[in-house]
Amino acid sequence: PGKDCVKVAVRVRPFNKRERDAGGRCIISMASSTITIQDPRNSQSPRSFCFDYAYWSHSGFTRDCSGLYVPEEPGGRYADQHCLSPQGSVFQDLGEGILENALQGYNATLLAYGQTGSGKSYSMVGYGPNKGLVPTLCDKLFQAIRANQDSRQCQVFFSMLEIYNEQVVDLLSRGSRSPGGLRVREEQQRGFYVEGLRRVPCDSAPQVEQLMEQGTRMRTTATTHMNANSSRSHMLIILQLKQIFSEESITKQSNINLVDLAGSERQRVSGSEADRLKEGTAINLSLTTLGNVISALADVAVGKKVVHIPYRDSVLTKLLQSALGGNSRTVMIAALSPADICYEESISTLRYAERAKRIQNRAVVNESPTE
Ligand code: ADP
Ligand code: MG
Questions:
Q1: Is 180 assigned a catalytic role?
Q2: Which protein residues have their CB within 5 A of the ion that is ligand 2?
Q3: How far apart are CA 268 and CA 263, in angstroms?
Q4: Could you give the CA distance from residue 61 to residue 356 in angstroms, rounded to a whole number?
Q5: Protein residues with CB under 6 Å of any ligand 1 atom
Q6: How many domains does the chain have?
Q7: pLDDT tens across 87-120, in order?
Q8: Nearest Cα to 13, choosing from 34, 30, 1?
Q9: Radius of gyration of the chain (CA)
Q10: CATH number of the domain that residue 238 is part of
């Protein structure tokens, strides 16, 4: 099988109110898919990174003589309608390919990475009329299923879960708030999976959207229940597509993982929270391990000797094993704030994304004779 690199996109959101009120300076600029970031305390050292795609949603700004973006009209408004990269073009570049891959029988994964408030959920799920990648993907998936119904019979299953402090919570099932959460198990053929996770058969996009709303409500209650902060949990949607081609007697199966990761900012643990956390549990073991797996795979890709990829060290990396270096076509969106006050987090997101870009997967079509 051929190798496919993980595709990486970066997306810069507009200033938020806090950044505007603080008189924030824009330290990021973009020229096609190259993104340049300026350390606000060191004018001599801008750093550039090149990705597969780069989206600029920050507007109302113009460059000053030192190359920094400054407000065109001080006190102007930077509302959503100023978006330069609307949701539709992001879907065209990233979502369309995932849909096509899935219809061909490949596994696909989409991950959103970035600090809290950087735009992960905006890109993945969206807000109101600004529909994100997941709802649009579902819309188009059911359209494609209807358009192809003469040649194949399709089934779609929807699951939604949350990983918080290494516990798996089923967001579609009330009974799953058992202590310790659901168990992650491993089988030879299947790899890692969540035991007892609810899979809801779906046949329309509105049905999926309703399930997503239900899951999102449940996530809010679940985190409140655990006294937790939802920016520290990972949300994972799994869409399973089964296509039965009766003429050829072939069945194709693909899993689509859609992951809204926990905020990547350095975690500070307050006193009471430290007490609640199990001793020895890192505040976000899954996110730390994801970083370690990505670094190890990036080393493999440049020919370094790597003895061990630590997939087994966390729940998230177990569930994403095939997405990272395995049988999946994988896309990562790195979400960024344009503001000077976010420099440390933004440069760390860009470095992370740069490593992810090196990962090589080997995706194959999952097909077998129809039983
Ligand atoms: P995260 O999920 O990373 O914590 P959100 O996606 O909730 O962050 O985004 C934080 C805020 O920024 C939201 O109000 C959202 O509407 C806005 N936002 C994020 N990305 C964009 C974008 N590309 N264009 C316009 N607004 C955005
Ligand atoms: Mg979010």
A1: no
A2: 121
A3: 12
A4: 30
A5: 11, 13-14, 16, 57, 80, 83, 114, 116-122, 127, 335
A6: 1
A7: 888 999 999 999 999 999 999 999 999 999 999 9
A8: 30
A9: 21
A10: 3.40.850.10
